[in-house]
From TrEMBL, chain A:
Required for the activity of the bacterial periplasmic transport system of putrescine. One of its GO terms (cellular component) is periplasmic space. This is Putrescine-binding periplasmic protein. The keyword Signal applies. It comes from Ahrensia marina. Its main location: periplasm. CDD domains: PBP2_PotF. GO terms for biological process: polyamine transport.
UniProtKB/TrEMBL annotation, chain B:
Belongs to the binding-protein-dependent transport system permease family. CysTW subfamily. PANTHER family: INNER MEMBRANE ABC TRANSPORTER PERMEASE PROTEIN YDCU-RELATED-RELATED, PUTRESCINE TRANSPORT SYSTEM PERMEASE PROTEIN POTH. This is Putrescine/spermidine ABC transporter permease. It is a multi-pass membrane protein. Residues 81-287 form the ABC transmembrane type-1 domain. Keywords: Cell membrane, Membrane, Transmembrane, Transmembrane helix, Transport.
């Protein structure tokens, strides 16, 4: 009997010990961010400093993130939607309001960027800006010169939307983002119309423009162009600023004679904001706030920007940015260029259907 | 006791079907009758049974057939169905052309090496499907293995553009589904009594004639089973056209994806799925009938 009792006690003790260590280690946070969008050291440092384990997953389209969020119970505690998607998701009740008392690093944020973000998140109640950037043209410097002549400067959407010029680049390869919410505003802007227009007849004109240059596009894809540009497989890609700059760096590292550059076209380009928010059904709310607060630390944010080549919404991090980040007009455009950037508002269901239908027509020819 | 056991063995497959087929089907069917809204989940009415009978009748009265009308009216969906049908039919045919000789060869091989041959057919399943399809990107892309080999051998001078075309989709489907064609045909051919063919030859039938009149006829149930096992998953295939196909490869799987992800329109996505199921049920029923008839004839 005694033996049984000892056995039971020791079992109880062991399980107690196990559960207490479990509690100590159990602090975790599940983050769902864009692919190639952070310096992984930041994640390791966060765990080292706070003892919170991170599960870090990645996606490459807002649509995938949104569908998961709308289905609910994603299991993620921090997600990173772009502004237009964020606005709609806030309306759908996907997110919880941030507890600003837990976010003392909010003071580091750039008021100018926070103000722009209010278009999507009035009062900045649900999200903090992570990175922002532009949608422009990435190109292979030597090949474009070879085809279009030494004197050609890449500074215009003509390269994509003018069939005469795009036709010459066709065989060398043009990639385009597979994202109607990026390309349709760019087309409208090129046509001299309001890039934020929701009128079906305007969207149809944009569709006609893209259809007219469709034969020149090799592929519609939202992440493959990084490698394709870096390897020299293609000449031109309509892509996100930082992604193109990552391609530029990979090309330089590979040292195989490929030079990649990024241009913000003079006609204007889309300015977008990727923001961190906490889903309403998140399980690790405290840890999520701790993660956001950690990310808003100037040194952390600078480290992230120095790695991914995107501008951030953190004013205090600016002195810590590398010279080739803060000094690069492709990342931090001049005031004059910023004037030419436009933003778009979220689409309602009906406009989205018109957008997607137009896009399907463009991509599949149906 | 024996009776109880019998009931359990019969009941289990039905329970399985109800849980994993009928129930999900009913959920999808319900969503297809609703409307999209901006909420979690993004459709209404929710049809929440916990809210009592009133909520139930209320939800039923709000059901709409609009989505079915919408899908049937836009040529996009019809074209996507037809294009999927075409790709699935051609792939099934190609798989049969490659799979039958393989299965025939296996069944005529010496008894001792048959298990090894069978193993070779099954072996690819030990690697993840996704990785095997990805591997084809490495083989087919312009600077990939195949082009390197053909150009190195001096057969072609410019790389063949197969990756991101419909041909790549056929290659992917035929490769992935070949075992599903080979195994059922092999199973019927292996059981076949070869003395029938010998008798036909003794009675003056040509080798080809004997093959066509005896072997091919007796293998028919296996061929049918193989064709359906390839055709049915191929028509709804999403991964292979997404990874290997080009932007112009229109298949219903991709259309469904864009309804779901780009339009956030779960009701229309569900409607597309229900119609696809209806298209599939017809061949499945035909197949069942053929099987039943074959079993009858065999008796």
């Amino acid at each position: 009997m005694v033996r049984v009792k000892t056995l039971l006690t020791s079992v109880a003790l062991v399980s107690l010990a196990a559960s207490s260590t479990a509690i100590a280690q159990d602090r975790s946070v599940n983050v769902y961010n864009w692919s190639d969008y952070i310096d992984e050291e930041i994640l390791a440092d966060f765990t080292k400093e706070t003892g919170i384990e991170i599960t870090y997953d990645v996606f490459d389209s807002n649509e995938i993130l949104e569908t998961k969020l709308l289905a609910g119970k994603t299991g993620y505690d921090v997600v990173v939607p772009t502004g237009t998607f964020l606005a709609r998701q806030i309306q759908a009740g996907v997110f919880q309001k941030l507890d600003k008392s837990k976010l003392d690093n909010l003071k580091n944020m750039d008021p100018a960027i926070s103000e722009r973000l209010e278009k999507y998140d009035p009062g900045n109640e649900y999200a903090i800006n992570y990175m922002w950037g532009t949608t422009g043209i990435g190109y292979n410097v030597d090949k474009v010169k070879e085809i279009l002549g030494e004197d050609y400067t890449v500074d215009s959407w003509d390269m994509i939307f003018n069939p005469e010029i795009a036709g010459k680049l066709k065989d060398c390869g043009i990639y385009m983002l597979d994202a109607p919410t990026e390309i349709i505003p760019a087309s409208l802007n090129y046509l001299g119309m309001d890039p934020d227009s929701k009128k079906p007849e305007d969207i149809e004109k944009a569709q006609e423009l893209v259809l007219s240059i469709r034969p020149n596009i090799r592929k519609f894809h939202s992440s493959e162009y990084i490698n394709a540009l870096a390897n020299g497989d293609i000449c031109v890609a309509v892509g996100w600023s930082g992604d193109v700059l990552q391609a530029r760096d990979r090309a330089a590292e590979a040292d195989a004679g490929v030079t990649v550059e990024y241009a913000i076209p003079k006609e204007g380009a889309l300015m977008w904001f990727d923001n961190m928010a906490i889903p309403a059904d998140a399980e690790n709310v405290d840890e999520a706030h701790e993660f956001l607060n950690y990310i808003m630390r100037p040194d952390v944010m600078a480290k992230a920007s120095n790695y991914v080549y995107y501008a951030n919404g953190n004013a205090a991090s600016k002195p810590m940015l590398a010279e080739d980040v803060i000094g690069d007009p492709a990342i931090y455009p001049s005031e004059e260029t910023v004037q030419r950037l436009y933003t778009v508002s979220p689409n309602d269901q009906r406009t989205d259907r018109v957008y997607t239908r137009a896009w399907t027509k463009v991509v599949t020819g149906q | 006791m024996g009776n109880f056991f019998k009931r359990v063995t019969i009941g289990l497959p039905y329970l399985w079907l109800c849980l994993l087929f009928l129930l999900p089907f009913l959920i999808v069917l319900r969503v297809s009758f609703s409307e999209p809204v901006l909420a979690m989940p993004p459709f209404a009415p929710q049809f929440d049974l916990s809210e009592g009978w009133q909520a139930f009748t209320d939800a039923v009265s709000r059901f709409t057939l609009y989505n079915f009308q919408f899908v049937l009216e836009d040529s996009l969906y019809t074209n996507a169905y037809l294009s999927s049908l075409r790709i699935a039919l051609i792939s099934t045919f190609l798989t049969l052309v490659i799979g039958f000789p393989l299965a025939y060869g296996m069944s005529r091989a010496p008894m001792t090496i048959r298990p090894m041959l069978l193993m070779l057919v099954i072996l690819p399943f030990w690697t993840s499907f996704l990785i095997r399809v990805y591997a084809w990107i490495g083989i087919l892309k312009p600077e990939g293995l195949m082009n390197q080999f053909l150009m190195g051998a001096g057969i072609i001078s410019t790389p063949l553009r197969i990756y991101n075309t419909e041909i790549a989709v056929y290659i992917g489907i035929v490769y992935s589904y070949l075992p599903f064609m080979v195994l059922p045909i092999y199973a019927t051919l292996e059981k076949m009594d070869y003395s029938y063919v010998e008798a036909a030859r003794d009675l003056g039938c040509s080798a080809l004639g004997a093959f066509w009149k005896i072997t091919a006829r007796l293998a028919l149930p296996g061929v049918l089973a193989g064709c359906f096992l390839v055709f049915i998953p191929a028509i709804g295939e999403f991964v292979i056209p997404e990874l290997l196909g080009g932007s112009r490869t229109l298949m219903i799987g991709k259309t469904l994806w864009s309804e779901f992800f780009n339009n956030r329109d779960w009701p229309v996505a569900s409607t597309v799925a229900i119609i696809l199921l209806a298209i599939l049920v017809v061949p499945i029923v035909l197949f069942q009938n053929a099987q039943a008839r074959a079993a009858e004839a065999g008796r």
